[in-house]
Design a protein that fits this description.
The structure holds 2 protein chains of 2 kinds. By secondary structure, chain A is of the alpha+beta class. Chain A folds into 2 domains: 35 residues; 204 residues, Alpha-Beta Plaits. In chain A, 27% of the residues lie in helices and 19% in strands. About 3% of the residues of chain A have low confidence. The longest helix of chain B has 34 residues. Chain B is 72% helix and 1% strand. Chain B has a two-stranded antiparallel sheet. The model of chain B has no long low-confidence stretch (mean pLDDT 94). Chain B is mainly alpha-helical. Classes of the chains: A alpha+beta, B mainly alpha. Chains A and B meet through β3, α4 and α5 of A and loops of B.
Chain lengths: 255, 388
């Protein structure tokens, strides 16, 4: 069979394309999992973390509180919480004065207390608001607590002097002095997980999806759509702390 | 939860700042007040208070030396406290403490006392021998010139230091007020009045303390109480107290009239958990009674002995009142929830690290230091000499 010049060119081009494709595929195979290779190492400049909490979805099971205590080795006693759940009960004749309880921070859930039709009752998960303009980092005398580039407020335990000024400065009651280290402690947004591409423990465990982590710098994060389509509120907006825990369905009575 | 009424955020149940932090503004206030009284004679030319001038300076020094102690005892990591000086966080009010403190101690108080005592130190060095001589030599810093011209320079420099010292004393205590007043999260603290109220209560407490110490030391020395001196001090105490009380009432009336979101919670707290310390001790026994007593001495002609007794009673009540005021600010500010929905209780230990016993010892320590300072740098002999 005669090989025409046309055939030769066709086969040659096909071979060339296949070789190039194989070569580039091989590169990916050698590099490991294709997604990991695409993500690259964690860069704080590429993220801006926030949290979405849907009050309407919270059933007060306390999974988040338990998961947080376990994941972060938080002191067991009931005055040390990185996250906790409050139950609000509002009597319609006196909507300004809610009755609130949080037995052991809601760690074991809540027992039934209010009858159907008796006012309204709902749960509000609380945690550090990872404020953009946080009053706690402002007052730290040695700069041991700080906001990271990616918007998470952390404490350097090796630097904290334990003066507790930050505890006083937090309007939301999110900080405490760890009795083991004598240094300030608080929610880290599970930074050790975030930087590995995982979500915080409380988000992962929540059976109703009431908590969602949000990366406001990632245009593909579904949080953008959520924030656009819901009526969002932060706690104590008058404090002007740039709080980044965004609540959906938050009642005005919540403090 | 025991000790909790209503709802507290769980992390708020335990108080963070203890009785030791109550002592911190109380002690620095005494320092600032004693210094202001000392400067009356020097800068404002009130010669009547001269007999208390040196005592007031030494009192300020004794209390200033102790001022950082309750803070150190309270820190979770006192061994790291030097980081506040070496790596201060510039946006933190607390980080400035070390600098304000050192400025006041080293630039104002120590220099002024040294200048005031230099002549006696040189004479003491000349008159003594051995170790004592070496000691006095050392604290004269090698300066041996006590010619009239040299002493005149001492006096002029001392006057300038005092003039710098007055705003410094204002700074020291106004600053302590700012530490509390600038916390927007806490409505009990957050008011621009706080530094001013702290300052005037400081002046009041410092004057009262020096008055008491002067009368007490006169008794111990079996020396007569200089009546024009204590009368003048009591008059200043009376007027300073009126201003202080007016400022506190402006703050109170403003809060009651504005009745913002925190009012209900704070009002309830004052009427219940703070009733004894705020209404009875601070406003009643600690303010109204001493003002009335001092006012009485302004209106009536009373015998010397009676006046001194009234001054002493008023002075003691004043100190109780100002201590109660510090308590109500520091402890009161932590008894209510920042949710305004509940209250907690302060449980003070006794022989614990931040308990009552160390607090009492911290309060007594400056008196011990003062006794030593008085031995070392006697305030009276030269004061009497100056009078003659």
């Amino acid at each position: 069979m005669d090989t025409t010049r046309r055939d030769f060119l066709m086969v040659g081009t096909k071979l060339l394309v296949m070789t190039a494709a194989t070569a580039s595929a091989l590169e990916h195979v050698l590099a490991g999992a294709p997604e990991a290779a695409a993500a690259g190492p964690y860069s704080t400049a590429e993220h801006w973390w926030a949290m979405l909490i849907d009050v309407e979805k919270c059933i007060g099971g306390g999974h988040c509180v338990r998961a947080c205590k376990t994941e972060n080795n938080v002191v067991d006693e009931p005055m040390y919480f990185r996250t906790w759940v409050e139950r609000y009960h509002i009597n319609m004749s006196d909507p300004d004065h809610p009755i609130v309880d949080s037995p052991d921070g809601g760690i074991n859930g809540f027992t039934e207390k209010y009858a159907d039709g008796d006012g309204k009752t709902f749960f509000v998960p609380k945690m550090c608001n990872h404020c953009a303009d946080s009053p706690c980092t402002q007052v730290c005398p040695v700069g041991a607590t700080f906001r990271t580039n990616d918007g998470v407020v952390l404490v350097d335990k090796d630097y904290c002097v334990g003066c507790r000024y930050c505890v006083q400065a937090c309007p939301y009651g999110c900080r405490y002095l760890d009795p083991r280290t004598h240094t300030a402690d608080k929610c880290t947004l599970c930074y050790h997980r975030l930087t590995k591409g995982l979500v915080p423990a409380c988000v992962e465990i929540c059976p109703t999806g009431a908590r969602q982590i949000a990366d406001l710098k990632n245009p593909n994060d579904p949080a953008h759509e959520y924030l656009r389509t819901h009526k969002i509120q932060v706690l104590k907006p008058q404090m002007a702390t740039g709080a980044k825990v965004y609540y959906n369905g938050l009642d005005g009575a919540v403090r | 939860m025991p000790g909790v009424d209503g709802f507290m955020y769980p992390n708020e149940v335990e108080l963070q700042w203890s009785v030791l932090i109550v002592l911190y503004p109380f002690i620095t206030g005494l320092v600032a007040g004693a210094f202001i009284l000392a400067s009356l004679e020097r800068v404002f030319n009130v010669p009547a208070v001269k007999p208390t001038y040196r005592l007031a300076l030494l009192t300020a020094l004794a209390f200033l030396l102790v001022a950082p102690l309750p803070l150190q005892m309270h820190l979770g990591h006192p061994e790291r406290s030097f980081e506040m000086m070496f790596t201060p966080h510039t946006t933190s009010a607390m980080a400035m403490f070390g600098f304000v403190y050192l400025w006041y101690l080293m630039v104002v108080l120590v220099v002024e006392i040294w200048l005031e005592y230099r002549r006696e130190l040189v004479l003491a060095a000349r008159a003594s021998a051995g170790l004592k001589r070496l000691f006095y030599r050392a604290i004269t810093l090698g300066s041996d010139n006590i010619s009239p011209a040299s002493l005149r320079i001492d006096d002029q420099v001392g006057r300038i230091v005092t003039i710098i010292g007055i705003p410094s004393a204002f700074l020291l205590h106004g600053y302590v007020g700012f530490i509390f007043g600038s916390i927007k999260a806490n409505p009990w603290w957050s008011t621009p009045m706080m530094p001013i109220v702290f300052l005037f209560s400081a002046i009041v407490s410092g004057i009262a303390l020096v008055l008491l110490l002067y009368v007490a030391t006169s008794r111990i020395r079996r020396a007569p109480v200089d009546m024009p001196c204590v009368d003048t001090i009591a008059t200043y105490l009376f007027y300073a107290f009126m201003v202080d009380f007016a400022l506190e009432m402006i703050d109170l009336i403003h809060r009651i009239y504005e009745a913002d979101e925190s009012f209900r919670a704070l009002d309830f707290m004052v009427k219940t958990r703070l009733f004894t310390s705020q209404i009875v001790l601070q406003i009643g026994l600690g303010t109204l009674v001493p003002i009335a007593l001092l006012g009485l001495t302004q209106l009536l002609r009373l015998r010397d002995r009676t006046r001194v007794r009234i001054y002493v009673t008023a002075g003691v009540l004043t100190l109780v009142g100002i201590l109660a005021m510090r308590w109500n600010v520091v402890i009161g500010g932590q008894l209510f929830s920042k949710s305004f929905l509940g209250y907690t209780t302060y449980k003070m230990g006794f022989a614990t690290r931040e308990g009552l016993l160390p607090a009492v010892l911290v309060l007594l320590l400056p008196l011990g230091i003062l006794a030593a300072l008085v031995k070392l740098l006697p305030p009276w002999t030269s004061a009497d000499a100056a009078h003659s």
